[in-house]
């Protein structure tokens, strides 16, 4: 099977777990995977440590690599279509990546995010005359696309993590776009505990940024006649604003900020929570969650879900396995929380069982890797 070079903006990270999940699934199928990242993350999942040790970073390569300079001519048509990146820098980094990919005998380059990682992967692939593909995730497609059509025109195929993104990207290009949702590692999620007996606490987990809709969550809590307690797990630029809101509105005894936690923490603490609240929205710059992995993880762990009816969520959940409400509506969210509190244990048990079966049938990393492997091997 082909050796695949993975090109990633930052690896490893605590929040973007899907890259490590995908690489491990491809390795399990028999591929040799070699990761390359432009930045080494400071906080990461324990499961990503072996891949981090294998990962190559620019500091380990010559700043100027001339070994494949004569073949860089192949990349010029693509480079001349770039408006977001300096052409000389793109050639230099493409030659760096080509040197690394040639050293490890990569026969395919696969980039995550349609930003500089995809651009440099395309340049390196053209230099080496090997196929290249990339995955669009969200902000790189909707909030800040960079020379997207040029990338689509010069890759062998592109992957979209939602069906809506697939349709959008396919409308821009004749290049094949595949639907490839992010998957979960099923071996980390044993069968559900039928003796589930959670506390009264709710959970939010994710980056503390605008698109997560946390201000809507705090406003909804203010409207509740029956108070709740919720743990907010994560970190990010909105944290100070959220904590200030809680202090100003008397929510400091209701809302607990637990900081960033790894995937193992979620798996070990999941059973104590009666529900996950994920009030996703669309940020002012257009950024939004696409196929949020946390929803799939919650289904696999048997945590009932309340979220919004954004496309990325409706592609994962149906009304029988999760509650979907209008975004940016504290009133609807407060009503959904109230209704959740009124559900019987049997109702929630049925919801958990249906959700678990659904995610294990539809969103496992193994199933997604098998499809990706077929597309790569066919080239």
Automatic annotation (TrEMBL):
<feature type="domain" description="Glycosyl transferase family 1">
    <location>
        <begin position="199"/>
        <end position="349"/>
    </location>
</feature>
<protein>
    <submittedName>
        <fullName>Colanic acid biosynthesis glycosyltransferase WcaL</fullName>
    </submittedName>
</protein>
<keyword id="KW-0808">Transferase</keyword>
<dbReference type="Pfam" id="PF00534">
    <property type="entry name" value="Glycos_transf_1"/>
</dbReference>
<dbReference type="GO" id="GO:0016757">
    <property type="term" value="F:glycosyltransferase activity"/>
</dbReference>
<dbReference type="InterPro" id="IPR050194">
    <property type="entry name" value="Glycosyltransferase_grp1"/>
</dbReference>
<dbReference type="InterPro" id="IPR001296">
    <property type="entry name" value="Glyco_trans_1"/>
</dbReference>
């Amino acid at each position: 099977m082909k050796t695949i070079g993975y090109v990633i903006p930052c690896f490893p990270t605590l929040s973007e777990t899907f890259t490590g999940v995908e690489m491990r699934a491809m390795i399990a199928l028999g591929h040799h995977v070699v990761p390359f990242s432009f930045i080494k993350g400071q906080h990461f999942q324990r499961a990503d440590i072996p891949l981090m040790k294998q990962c190559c970073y620019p500091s380990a390569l010559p700043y100027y690599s001339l070994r494949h300079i004569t073949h860089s001519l192949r990349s010029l048509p693509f480079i001349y279509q770039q408006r977001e990146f300096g052409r000389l820098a793109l050639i230099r980094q493409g030659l760096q990546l080509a040197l690394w990919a040639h050293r490890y005998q990569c026969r395919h380059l696969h980039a995550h995010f349609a930003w500089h990682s995809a651009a440099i992967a395309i340049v390196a692939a053209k230099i080496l005359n090997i196929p290249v593909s990339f995955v669009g995730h969200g902000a790189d497609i909707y909030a800040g696309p960079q020379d997207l059509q040029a990338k689509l025109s010069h890759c062998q195929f592109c992957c979209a993590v939602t069906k809506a993104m697939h349709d959008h990207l396919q409308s821009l290009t004749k290049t094949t776009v595949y639907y490839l949702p992010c998957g979960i590692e099923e071996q980390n999620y044993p069968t559900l505990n039928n003796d589930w007996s959670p506390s009264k606490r709710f959970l939010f987990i994710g980056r503390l940024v605008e698109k997560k809709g946390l201000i809507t969550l705090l406003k909804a809590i203010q409207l509740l006649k029956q108070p709740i307690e919720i743990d907010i797990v994560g970190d990010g630029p909105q944290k100070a604003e959220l904590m200030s809101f809680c202090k100003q509105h008397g929510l400091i005894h209701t809302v607990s900020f637990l900081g960033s936690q790894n995937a193992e923490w979620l798996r070990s603490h999941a059973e104590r929570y009666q529900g996950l609240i994920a009030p996703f929205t669309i940020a002012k710059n257009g950024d939004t969650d696409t196929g949020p992995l946390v929803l799939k993880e919650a289904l696999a762990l048997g945590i009932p879900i309340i979220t919004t009816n954004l496309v990325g969520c409706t592609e994962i959940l149906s009304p029988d396995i999760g509650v979907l409400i209008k975004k940016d509506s504290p009133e609807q969210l407060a009503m959904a929380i109230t209704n959740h509190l009124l559900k019987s244990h049997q109702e929630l048990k049925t919801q958990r069982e249906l959700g678990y079966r659904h995610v294990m049938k539809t969103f496992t990393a193994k199933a997604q890797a098998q499809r990706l492997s077929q597309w790569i091997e066919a080239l």
